[in-house]
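dude i think i finally got it to work??
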Amino acid sequence: MKMELKTKNMEDFLTILGKNDDDATQGGGIYLSNDDELIKETVEHLKKGYDKEKYTFIESKYTNRNIKEYVPLEILRLMIMIMMKKIKELNSEITLYDIGYEFGRHINPKNYMELKKFFRKNNLGVLKIESKNPVIIKVNDCALCDGLKSNESICYFDAGVLAGAYECILNKTVVVDEIRCMAQGADACYFKIEPVK
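look at this
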């Protein structure tokens, strides 16, 4: 699958992606022939751009851009809410769970502690194993729903991320259900993880 990305300043875009060769451009657009490779590069940037000791983002390790502040979390939330709305409108079979699942697979953690650190460093929430049989993961300070109110669980993306990540950790397919959600008034978000039989 080819993806065409156009911008007025291609030099800036190439710098952000870490690419700087003329072969990457064709006819005014950038053609990225391998989507998985682009995703992998971006995940690697996320992993190396953070100070592991201080849990702070080091912008200079990520890009040459001169940005003084972080992108607000509300932008991420808004993007996800718009995706949810569009998915429903289009009656798509693709869900936020599926998108999260792919994200979790690309994180490719080797164990629970690696996943926990990734969540914490990227301000996605603080993971804690609440139960081992069945596996229930508690997520404090959930980035996607903290402060929101809903009649139903809304962390489909997080559930998918945990499913993809735990597939890598356990080397088997799992299904993840959010059983309690902060948006419904719970003290944290709780996810039940079960291997597919």
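Helices lie at 10-17, 35-48, 59-62, 73-89, 96-107, 112-121, 156-170.
im so relieved honestly
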